[in-house]
Design brief:
By secondary structure, this protein is mostly helical. It has one domain (about 10-295). It has ten helices and no strands. Helix 1 packs parallel to helix 8 (about 200-225). The N and C termini lie far apart (about 70 Å). The mean pLDDT is about 85.
């Protein structure tokens, strides 16, 4: 209840104090018996209309936030499925096929990192380096749409393995479907990022809330007296807070405390792929050792 970090208090405190101070001034004038009490002003902006506008604003922003989270959740699941399918589907006939396959799998965390950077309008960073080759990293530094480029690199690998006969047409089609899903997720996030809530609506709502809060002292000063300032400050804090929440979450891909935890999501993907590669490698080594031991203990086979 008393948490400050991550709340909207910093964004609304100044406006709330201003409206509260205005309420104090009006209550002081009323105390001096000046004719400032005007209850009729409460009908200028009906409370229910303002409430509906604020709810619509917040719901619209939350829908964008939740849609972004679903798209990133789909990205995580798709990358996991891709890792499993590529590992199982692509055969290994030459000594370097395993290394090529692992290099392809490492492009999957690179895709997630590139998507995060792309949505934040940031260039290729050091975070990408461990997951791509030096040549690929150098190329990514000069490309704006990094997720698309990494998708192309992964597609080239799959096409080469298909031409070598290490991948069937059905398997290639199945993997391409998952890759298409990854790019669809990028497109969905782009839609959220590049289609903000119309500024005219946001500005007008901000103005309505401010006018409403400045009208409150005239409406309630006769009943509340010297408590008017505190009452107005609390109501202003509530209304400005609801409005500020919409501002905070309408673009969920940034660094704000209330944005999506993209760094943690990418870290989850990196850990998953690293564990997957390590586990599969160890498991296959164990299988080879078991086969050798079995052959040694059964020389007649």
């Amino acid at each position: 209840m008393f948490r400050f970090h991550g709340s909207v208090i910093p964004g609304v405190l100044e406006r709330s104090v201003f409206c509260g101070a205005f309420g104090v001034i009006i209550s002081f004038l009323d105390f001096k018996e000046l004719p400032v009490a005007q209850p009729v002003l409460g009908t200028v902006i009906p409370s229910i209309v303002l409430g509906l506008l604020l709810v619509f604003r917040t719901n619209t922003a939350y829908e964008r936030f939740w849609e972004g989270r679903k798209l990133w959740g789909s990205t995580v699941n798709t990358i996991r499925n891709l890792a499993w399918k590529i590992w199982v589907a692509v055969d290994e006939v030459e000594s370097d096929d395993r290394e090529r396959k692992i290099a392809a799998l490492r492009l999957l965390p690179a895709f997630a990192i590139a998507k995060k950077l792309y949505l934040r309008y940031e260039p290729a960073s050091e975070e990408l380096k461990p997951w791509v080759s030096p040549a690929q990293y150098s190329n990514l530094q000069n490309i704006q749409n990094m997720p698309l480029e990494i998708s192309r690199l992964l597609g080239n690998y799959l096409q080469q393995e298909y031409k070598r006969g290490l991948l069937t047409n059905y398997q290639l089609t199945s993997i391409h479907t998952l890759m298409n899903n990854l790019m669809d997720n990028v497109g969905g996030c782009e839609r959220i990022l590049k289609t903000p809530i119309p500024p005219a609506y946001v500005i007008h709502l901000n103005q309505l809330v401010l006018i409403y809060c400045l009208i409150l002292p005239f409406q309630f000063v006769r009943d509340l007296g010297l408590w008017t300032g505190l009452f107005v400050a609390l109501v202003s804090f509530a209304l400005f807070g609801i409005e500020e929440i919409g501002v905070e979450i309408e673009n969920p891909f940034g660094y704000d405390h209330n944005d999506l935890p993209l760094d943690k999501i990418c870290q989850t993907i990196k850990s998953n792929i690293e564990e997957f590669i390590a586990f599969q490698t160890i498991q296959e080594q164990d299988n080879i050792e078991k086969q050798i031991n079995f052959s040694y203990t059964n020389p007649d086979i």
